[in-house]
Amino acid sequence: MRKHVAIVTGGTRGIGAAISKKLTENGVTVVANYAGDDEKAKAFTEATGIAAMKWNVADYDACHAKVKEVEETHGPVTILINNAGITRDGTLLKMDRQMWEDVINVNLGGCFNMSKAVFPGMKARSFGRIVSIGSINGQGGQYGQVNYAAAKSGIHGFTKALAQEGARFGVTVNALAPGYIDTEMVAAVPEPVLEKIVAKIPVGRLGQADEIARGVAFLCGEDAGFVTGSTLSINGGQHMY
Ligand code: CAA
């Protein structure tokens, strides 16, 4: 049985924390990346025993340096989960350049930076699993999110292109597109707006972070080698195509 080491970006909170825990349960050594909240990261490590490491996925050089550090400490990275994401919502008229750049650089740039750092090793070892967290709003758009929808939609294109490059080296590359999940990010949507969104979810509720983590675990499995370039939508039926 191969030893698995995973990096989960944005892995100490929300969907990322659920993914870190699920992979750990499955016997994977997980390093959970975070960028901001030291206190929450410390509490996460104390509660779960999962190592947390701080860097900004939008920083190309930091991604390369930290992947090297993880590999020196834990061994080769076999699984990368590109989960780190932020929102800076606002209609185009109210969105300034910084709101655009922050979201593109973290949500999409982070996927490039991290994949670029781990892909050569995965290729050399003929095994890898890269799963990037897209969004229902990258599939269908969302009022007030031209930045986020563009970045998440970009993740879906990135995934399909890199899947073609990784296929013959045993590196699968997939995306998972969550719908509205019960996390701090979604809780930040103004209540009346969120109520209208939930009313449009056929299953009739927000999703749970664990429901996303189980999908990610499936895509990371050794027996999922024929699944590549796909997008797994987990959204309570809110968007189908
Ligand atoms: N379609 C059409 N019109 C809409 C609309 C929609 N979906 N939503 C709002 N409008 C209209 C409003 O009715 C309003 O019209 P009037 O001025 O004629 O009354 C106008 O647009 C302005 O709307 P707001 O008052 O809401 O504008 P605002 O500037 O105060 O707020 C906003 C805009 C920040 C985008 C706010 O609407 C909002 O937060 N929307 C939710 C965005 C969202 O879903 N974010 C998801 C975050 S979670 C996430 O991203 C995770 C994931 O992957 C799913």
What would the keywords be for this entry?
241 residues; alpha/beta; Rossmann fold; 7 strands; 49% helix; 15% strand; globular; binds acetoacetyl-coenzyme A
- The CATH superfamily appears as NAD(P)-binding Rossmann-like Domain
Supply Rg: 17 Å
Using the coordinates above, name the CATH class: Alpha Beta
Q: Provide the domain count.
A: 1
Q: Which CATH architecture would you pick?
A: 3-Layer(aba) Sandwich
Number of helices: 9
Annotation, overall tally of beta strands: 7
> Ions, cofactors, ligands: which are bound?
acetoacetyl-coenzyme A
Strand residue content? 5-15%
Can you offer a commentary on this structure?
With 241 residues, this protein is an alpha/beta fold. It is built from 9 helices and 7 strands. It has helices spanning 14-25, 38-48, 60-74, 97-125, 136-140, 146-166, 184-187, 191-199, 209-220, and strands at residues 5-8, 29-34, 51-54, 79-82, 128-133, 171-178, 231-234. A 7-stranded parallel β-sheet has the order 3-2-1-4-5-6-7, sandwiched between helices. The longest helix is centred in the middle third of the chain and has 29 residues, at 97-125. It is globular and about 50 Å long. It binds acetoacetyl-coenzyme A. Acetoacetyl-coenzyme A binds next to helix 5 and helix 7.
Summarize this entry quickly.
The protein has nine helices and seven strands, in the order E-H-E-H-E-H-E-H-E-H-H-E-H-H-H-E. By secondary structure, it is an alpha/beta fold. The radius of gyration is 17 Å and the shape is globular.
Topology:
Elements lengths: L4 E4 L5 H12 L3 E6 L3 H11 L2 E4 L5 H15 L4 E4 L14 H29 L2 E6 L2 H5 L5 H21 L4 E8 L5 H4 L3 H9 L9 H12 L10 E4 L7
Parallel strand pairs: 1-2, 1-4, 2-3, 4-5, 5-6, 6-7
Helix pairs in contact: 1-9, 3-4, 4-6
Bound molecules: acetoacetyl-coenzyme A.
